[in-house]
Amino acid sequence: MATEGYRKYVCVVCGYIYDEAEGDPDGGLPPGTRFEDIPDDWVCPECASSKDDFELLEE
User: Fold this and answer.
1) pTM of the model as a whole
2) Torsion of Cα atoms, 18 then 23 then 24 then 26, to 10°
C-alpha cells in the first residue's frame, strides 16, 4: 500500500506512533484509517492514553 498522503501521530505520553497507512489492526483500525476517523474511545495500544494525547508528527 502506498503511504503517500498518510500522516503519523505520536502519543505525547509514551512515544507510540500511530501511522494512518498501517492503522491499528489489533485495536480494530484497518490500514488506511485516518486519525480523524478513529473513534473517540480508542486508546493508545502502548499506554492506554486517550486519542487527545496524540499530536501530528512533523517529519
Assistant:
1) 0.90
2) -160
CA distance 1 to 51: 25
| Cβ atoms within 10 Å, residue 45 | 14
Buried b (16+ CB within 10 A) or exposed e, 13-44: eeebebebebbbeeeebeeebebeebeeebeb
- Binned at pLDDT 50, 70 and 90, residue 41 comes out as very high
CA 59 – CA 49 distance, rounded (Å): 22
For the chain, how big is the Rg over CA atoms in Å? 11
